[in-house]
Design goal:
The chain has about 170 residues and is of the alpha/beta class. It has 8 helices and 4 strands; from the N terminus they run ααααβααββαβα. The N and C termini lie far apart (about 55 Å). The mean pLDDT is about 90.
């Protein structure tokens, strides 16, 4: 909630949304939280997709122009397996942020919530201060996390079958 609240304040301060639009979006967000629709419970999603008072392109341009961060599309990025296996899905969904690679002493992180200081602070505590931030869309984060969840579910289903003595042994050449 705090990440959404501070994101909203930053969007108003950057003149990307009006205060009355933010208030209406916050009301809708509270309704989503009460209905246990956790994945839809994102202020950014409400502002962009439901209320249509913010363009994700405008937000991304603002981040590039004012914060100097780059853009990333994780759908075309070959994320190393150790990042896919060790991702904290709960933190990623809650912050709409994904660590996706490491270059020397820097961790590369993609986020749709860069304007929220709470999100940046959370990941700096988790990963250290050497973070290279990249902006991305809610859809890219969602697609990436859903793909990871599917991989984990598939691996969890395969693992018990490998260890089941009732299963026929694999033939070796």
């Amino acid at each position: 909630m705090r990440a959404n609240r501070l994101l909203g304040a930053a969007l108003v301060e950057a003149n990307l949304v009006k205060i009355e639009d933010l208030e209406a979006a916050n009301e809708r967000l509270l309704g989503l939280l009460q209905s246990n629709a956790e994945r839809q419970a994102t202020l950014l999603g409400v502002l962009i997709y439901e209320k249509k008072v913010l363009s994700e392109d405008d937000l991304l341009h603002h981040l590039i122009d004012n914060d100097g961060i780059g853009l990333i599309d994780l759908r075309t990025y070959d994320v190393p397996e150790d990042f896919r296996k060790n991702v904290d899905l709960g933190s990623c969904w809650a912050t709409w942020t994904v660590p996706f690679d490491k270059e020397e002493d820097f961790t590369l992180v993609a986020t749709a919530y860069y304007l929220s200081p709470v999100v940046r602070s959370h990941w700096e505590k988790q990963l250290g201060s050497n973070i290279l931030w990249y902006a991305t869309t809610l859809e890219v984060i969602s697609d990436f996390l859903e793909k990871i969840e599917a991989e984990l579910a598939k691996n969890a289903a395969v693992e018990p079958a490998k260890n089941d003595p009732a299963q026929p042994a694999a033939k070796t050449a």
